[in-house]
Design a protein that fits this description.
It contains 25 helices and 19 strands. By secondary structure, the chain is an alpha+beta fold. It folds into 3 domains: 199 residues, Aldehyde ferredoxin oxidoreductase, N-terminal domain (Aldehyde Ferredoxin Oxidoreductase,  A, domain 1, 4-Layer Sandwich); 156 residues, Aldehyde Ferredoxin Oxidoreductase Protein, subunit A, domain 2; 156 residues, Aldehyde Ferredoxin Oxidoreductase Protein, subunit A, domain 3 (Orthogonal Bundle), CATH 1.10.599.10. It has a 6-stranded mixed β-sheet. A hairpin with a 6-residue loop joins strand 14 and strand 15. The radius of gyration is 22 Å and the shape is globular.
Length: 601
């Protein structure tokens, strides 16, 4: 199974097709795995993430666009301007499958255009077109304009908004108007290259080695997805916001910039409340049996909006993190993030950090320009989306991200981040394994590198003692390897709430014909994760960076069901390194040899 890639040099305007041999595909699968292989091979150490030498990859995998359940995903890989390390983020919707239908398994963008452009890919052919008329426009207006220009409702568009153009640290890439490749500032890299959009259209279905076996394996997987409480009932009925109540009840719903893990009025922003108040209907990504997205309408002034979301992470970031329980304001801010091309998770985390800085007297009233920046003010999260995207007034400071913002105002300990990437919606003082997963995540503060919330809170695939440290290193490694497979195959990791390695390998073998065993599949995940670690090690990251904010390590949770706990990282980290075959956070030569990665040493 060879993969076909398009390489587009925006500096010269040249393009060419490239093919990846099956032996290399077997080692890295596709998506995230193949993307990091290309990045580590083609970028020199110290490459400026916002310079023309950086690469921006849009990658699919063998599962994308097939009958494999939840296979709508594509992955974006780059060097992150937010962290200086590996930048990788995934996205659902319809763009990923359409890219494969258009005849390509991935796109490598390099160089920098002299003027704004977009890339138009259709039926195995590509061209670079001028995009000056769309520069400065929102992602929504860009999508509408390009669709009108090219004359077809079936084309799929991934674009940036003003945030990406202005190199904001939380700039996202948006497709289908509401699906975001949000984390690690890939949108800023796209803006630095003056690439406004990638547009795709195609009709060619991806190859499958054994259609009959795939059909049988998919039927089994669909049955398991339907029988699971989470994927068969909770997500279809209430969307990801169903998690608000449970996470809050366990005392790890980060509130007021992680000062506590309990939000007293969480019920007002829960999935159940969303369903009763602003929900119009459910919606799903391409080929998804779950339909976990929410289509909403807010009629109450001044927050009127029709759109999608907010998801659990967005409800937290724009809600509890900022001590806001106005669901209408959260929905408005979230849709503005989609429209302007902002990752609401990093944005909301940063606003929460700014609110604490302000309340501690670190930011003057003059600097805020009339903005009332305090916990509980819903107007602040709406107003700052505009200011951040255009870098206006204090929005220029929010555009720095939490780490640089807190450093600027003399209180770096108030930034809730790992490796420069803002933490998501789970306080690890209430889930020890999640703390280790955050600390060792290659891309920084991330719950999708290894979602330990599954076993520690929801009991999937089995219930673990969330306050125990024993055995957590092994679980974190296993989930990191598994999610590297999800991101490389590429399919939505929500599938792992119902299906596990045996079902995944059965479907992948039917698609590829490779005949992998479950152990071989997980070893491939280990290889991908280790190669990412090798990349960030080359960029200066080490044990010192595999840590957590001081607040989570030294300040016991003040109240709620997780009261009195801190993250006990030290012992778990040593065990984790031993399991990985790393020394002080860096892969050893022996480990690289074991995984067939010695050429990258």
């Amino acid at each position: 199974m060879k993969l076909k890639l398009l390489r587009a040099d925006l500096s010269s305007g040249s393009m060419r097709d490239e093919f990846v041999d099956e032996d290399e595909v077997k080692l890295f699968i596709g998506g995230r795995g193949l993307g990091v292989k290309i990045i580590i091979e083609e970028l020199k150490p110290g490459t400026d993430p916002l310079g023309p030498e950086n690469k921006l990859l849009f990658m699919t995998g063998p599962a994308t666009g097939t009958a494999f359940p939840m296979s709508s995903m594509f992955h974006v890989i780059t060097k992150s301007p937010q962290t200086g390390g590996i930048g990788e983020t995934d996205c659902g919707g319809t763009f990923g499958p359409e890219l494969r239908f258009a005849g390509y398994d991935g796109v490598i963008i390099e160089g920098k255009a002299a003027e704004p452009v977009y890339l138009w890919i259709r039926e195995g052919e590509a061209e670079i077109r001028p995009a000056g008329r769309y520069w400065g426009k929102s992602t929504w207006d860009t999508e509408d304009g390009i669709r009108k220009e090219l004359g077809g409702p079936d084309i799929k568009i991934a674009s940036i908004g003003p945030a990406g153009e202005n190199l904001v640290s939380c700039a996202a890439i948006i497709n289908d108007k509401h699906r975001a490749a949000g984390r690690t500032a890939a949108g800023a890299v796209m803006g630095s290259k003056r690439l406004k959009a990638i547009v795709v259209r195609g009709t060619k279905r991806p190859p499958v080695a054994d259609e009959k076996k795939l059909k049988e394996a998919v039927q089994n997987a669909l049955k398991m997805l339907k029988e699971s409480r989470i994927t068969g009932h909770d997500l279809p009925t209430y969307g990801t916001a169903i998690a608000v109540g449970s996470i809050n009840e366990h005392g790890l719903f980060p509130t007021r910039n992680f000062q506590t893990g309990v939000f007293p009025t969480a019920e007002k922003i829960s999935g159940e409340t969303l369903a009763k108040t602003i929900l119009i209907k459910s919606k799903g990504c391409w080929g998804c049996p779950i339909d976990c997205s929410r289509v909403i309408r807010v009629t109450q002034s001044p927050y009127q909006v029709e759109g999608e979301g907010p998801e659990y992470e967005e409800i937290w970031a724009l809600g509890a993190q900022c001590y806001i329980d106005d669901l209408n304001a959260i929905a408005k801010a979230n849709n503005l993030c989609d429209e302007l091309g902002i990752d609401p998770l990093s944005y909301g985390n940063t606003v929460g950090c700014a609110m604490e800085l302000s309340e501690r007297g670190k930011i003057s009233k003059e600097k805020l320009g009339g903005l009332e920046l305090k916990f509980g003010n819903p107007q602040a999260i709406v107003e700052l989306t505009w200011r951040t995207a255009y870098r206006l007034g204090f929005g220029n400071d929010i555009a720095l991200g939490a780490k640089r913002l807190a450093e600027k105002y003399g209180a770096p300990e108030l930034a809730m981040h790992v490796k420069g990437l803002e933490l998501p919606a789970y306080d690890p003082r209430g889930a020890q394994g999640q703390g280790l997963a955050y600390a060792t995540s290659n891309r920084g503060g991330c719950h999708l590198g290894a979602c330990m919330i599954g076993p520690e809170i929801f009991g999937v695939p089995q219930q673990l003692n969330r306050f125990a440290t024993e055995g957590k290193a092994q679980w974190v490694k296993k989930l990191q390897d598994l999610f590297a497979i999800c991101d490389s195959a590429v399919f939505c990791n929500f599938a792992t709430f119902a299906i596990w390695v045996p079902e995944i390998v059965e479907m992948l073998n039917a698609i590829t014909g490779w005949g992998w065993s479950p152990d071989e599949l997980l070893k491939t995940g280990d290889r991908i994760y280790t190669l990412e670690r090798l990349f960030i090690s080359r960029e200066g990251f080490g044990r010192k960076d595999d840590t957590l904010p001081k607040r989570l390590l030294e300040e016991p949770m003040p109240d709620g069901p997780s009261k009195g706990h801190v993250v006990k990282l030290g012992a778990m980290l040593d065990e984790y390194y031993a399991l990985r075959g790393w020394k002080d956070g860096k892969p050893t030569p022996q480990k690289l040899k074991e995984l067939g990665l010695s050429r990258y040493a």
